[in-house]
Amino acid sequence: MSLAPSQSAAMKPSKGKLPISVVTIIICSFAFIALLYTDTSRSLFKLKSCPRRNPVKKSKDRTAEDNLKNFQMDDRFEFDPEECTVNTGKWMFNKTLKPLYTDRSCPYLDRQVSCVKNGRRDSAYRRWEWQPDDCTLPRFNPELALKKLRGKRLLFVGDSLQRGQWQSFVCLVEWIIPEDKKSMKEVGSHSVFRAKEYDATIEFYWAPFLIESNTDHHIIADPKKRILKVDSIDKHAKHWGGVDFLVFNTYVWWMSGIRLKTLWGSFANGEEGYEELDTPVAYKIGLKTWANWIDSNINPNKTRVFFTTMSPTHTRSEDWNNTEGLKCFNETKPVLKKKYWGSGSDKRMMSVVASIGKKMKVPVTFINITQLSEYRIDAHASVYTETGGKLLTEEQRADPLHHADCIHWCLPGVPDTWNRIFLAYL
């Protein structure tokens, strides 16, 4: 049966038009695609800001408060000690950089290294920042440091330069701790800073040669009268047990002459019978005694061992082509020549440390601060220091050739960078 023309027309869609159901489906599809594209584009093209570390407690010291951002750096660049060579790089001047403490805000600094308090007027030496060539060195985060030390003991062992690193570490963290939650105790050769809320201690033990000598406690000023007992370390080492992190150094005290008086056996038998050895030879025997003690007494599953390499001295201005200079006196900026190496760092001694470290059973992490510190002729205590327990007189300051201290560092200063590296390894 054929349909009437009117009925046939009603059944056919009009030319160029779509049924309402089809139109609805198409509109919904476009809406869904648009929504999907919008969400996707947000995730693809809108970069998320890097998360910041948790804020720390505010310090009463204005300088520290103004510089909390110093350690809230971009977290995208994680420090990898296996990939980063921290000792190659350059010092960059950063006029906005300020220390987290001052020698007035931190009560634990020796007067020997409190250069500003002792009259130093220039401040540029505190605004140079070490930048390794192949990585980003994290800023020192005091809250992170204390969290890593929670329930643990950190002990620095060595000479006055190691004491400077210890004081730097204490000053970098103590300002975020309430007054009634921290303490300092000194007994003989052993000093202990305690962060009570963290049940953590940051300690220092004085042993300038690491091994025993006749000048450990009652210092003998004349190097010719000093005698090293190169095969004995137990007198000191008995204080190093039960520590979670051990940080050693020894160098500058060995550099008192080309030969050193050494002794085997007990001082109880007198100080006669010593033998004079070339300094690198005596150094090697002494470090072997230290290494043997570490390998025999330290459980690497419970204790991590670090060794800070030699801190350079800057007593010969001809090294950096300042023929009219007086040691490090009045130097106001670092040496900028790449790989500069002066006469204050003995590579023979450096190689002794490296060779012994390679043979040890207990792994030792070396905090390699020598090259980066070599550049810093501007950062020593110079004439802004003390000698014999007394500040230099005006007459002594006027004679830097005989009185400028180009061994120790002003604090805040270069040892703060050593501790940035140490914390990154920690």
UniProtKB/TrEMBL annotation:
Superkingdom of source: Eukaryota
Record field: transmembrane: 20-38
Calcium as UniProt keyword: no
Lipid bilayer topology: Single-pass membrane protein
An example Gene Ontology molecular-function term: O-acetyltransferase activity
Domain Trichome birefringence-like C-terminal: 137-424
Compartments it resides in: Membrane
A Gene Ontology cellular-component term: Golgi apparatus
Keyword Transmembrane attached: yes
Keywords linked to the UniProt accession: Membrane, Signal-anchor, Transmembrane, Transmembrane helix
Sequence ranges assigned to domain Trichome birefringence-like N-terminal in this UniProt record: 82-135
Family stated for the protein in its record: Belongs to the PC-esterase family. TBL subfamily.
Name this polypeptide is given: Trichome birefringence-like N-terminal domain-containing protein
Protein species of origin: Populus deltoides
Taxonomic classification: Eukaryota, Viridiplantae, Streptophyta, Embryophyta, Tracheophyta
